[in-house]
Write a structure and sequence with these properties.
The chain is α+β, with helices and mostly antiparallel strands. About 50% of the residues lie in helices and about 15% in strands. A hairpin with a 2-residue loop joins strand 8 and strand 9.
């Protein structure tokens, strides 16, 4: 949004008039958020998050609001949207939609056993959300997305041969695992450290549910492990054990899930590459994206190279946990 500071301040004031949240005293742009502009706003009644949705279409924003109402029923640790005086959560401002959220202080966590245990517990609780089937939405990171990108390779404006070759081969390698039928439910889909707020090693809230959808629950397990168990881009087996032990206290895995988890770990990292390519890297070179893609590609290759060892380790954890519950 290209607008002067005065214009933005007036816009925030106008939106606040629709709420019972007091009068604007100060605001500050926050750095996080790829698909949004986020501002911390202070009023005489408290501190809130002012979010301008710059990319998501209205149906997806409405989906997030509905899901949040479901999460409130289980007292899930997240920042909830706030309704205006008319009970509406989404306001229209020009080409964009605006929402106000509860504001929580906190920081991006260090990666350690305490934070990994906390996030595994939170994701397990989310994956147990009752009535999950009432929140249908296809995952943006899907094998269909990979296939659609591969179809675009011939017209790619930023073709990098090594990336395109890797992407097609790894997509085909992972495909059979993704076609297996697994338990489904609501997943966050993007639970990385920068989408959480901690105080020390204590979880405050999980934020940014824009990628949330109805999906194989193992996707969330694998994606969150990718976020919290890969210091220096290498899978830490001790952190993996901590994550699985804590998650299992919330939801037990099926035999097929245990078997497929090593390949789903690859899918988590490959899925992130898919996300970057889908978000224009296939056509416009961005050096920051390219560095991240190279890092993820290296991760996938290491996971695949060590797949047998990872499978054996996960099998040991599974035996330990399942024997302990019998």
């Amino acid at each position: 949004m290209n607008q002067t500071k005065d214009k933005l301040q007036e816009e925030i004031r106008q939106v606040l008039e629709l709420y019972d949240l007091g009068e604007l005293q100060a605001y500050k742009r926050l750095s996080f958020g790829y698909a949004n502009l986020n501002y911390r706003i202070d009023t005489n009644k408290g501190r809130f998050l002012y979010r301008v949705c710059t990319q998501q279409p209205l149906p997806l924003i409405e989906y997030e609001v509905r899901l949040m109402q479901g999460l409130r029923q289980i007292d899930y640790p997240t920042a909830y949207p706030i309704a205006n005086k008319q009970g509406e959560f989404i306001q229209t401002r020009g080409r964009y939609y605006v929402m106000l959220y509860e504001f929580y202080a906190g920081h991006e966590p260090a990666i350690n056993h305490q934070t990994t245990r906390a996030i595994a517990t939170a994701i397990g609780k989310l994956n147990n959300l009752p009535g999950a089937a009432q929140y249908p939405k296809k995952n943006a990171v899907h094998i269909d997305t990979c296939d659609a990108l591969i179809q675009e390779f011939g017209v790619a404006e930023n073709p990098i041969p090594e990336l395109l070759q890797y992407f097609k081969e790894q997509t085909d390698y992972i495909r059979p695992a993704l076609q297996e039928s697994l338990p489904q439910g609501v997943v966050h889909g993007d639970c990385f450290p920068d989408n959480t707020l901690f105080e020390g090693d204590t979880l405050v809230v999980v934020i940014d549910f824009e990628e949330a959808c109805y999906e194989n629950l193992l996707f969330d397990v694998a994606m969150t492990i990718n976020g919290f168990c890969f210091p220096d881009n290498i899978l830490d087996f001790d952190l993996l054990n901590t994550f699985i032990q804590a998650y299992y206290q919330q939801r037990s895995l099926t035999p097929k899930e245990w078997t497929l988890l090593p390949k789903y770990l690859q899918w988590g990292a490959h899925g992130m590459i898919t996300w970057h390519m889908r978000n224009n890297f296939l056509h416009v070179h961005n050096e920051t994206q390219w560095l991240r893609i190279q890092e993820l590609k290296e991760r996938v290759m290491l996971l695949r190279q060590n797949e047998a060892q990872i499978h054996q380790y996960i099998h040991q954890i599974a035996n330990q946990l399942t024997n302990a519950t019998h």
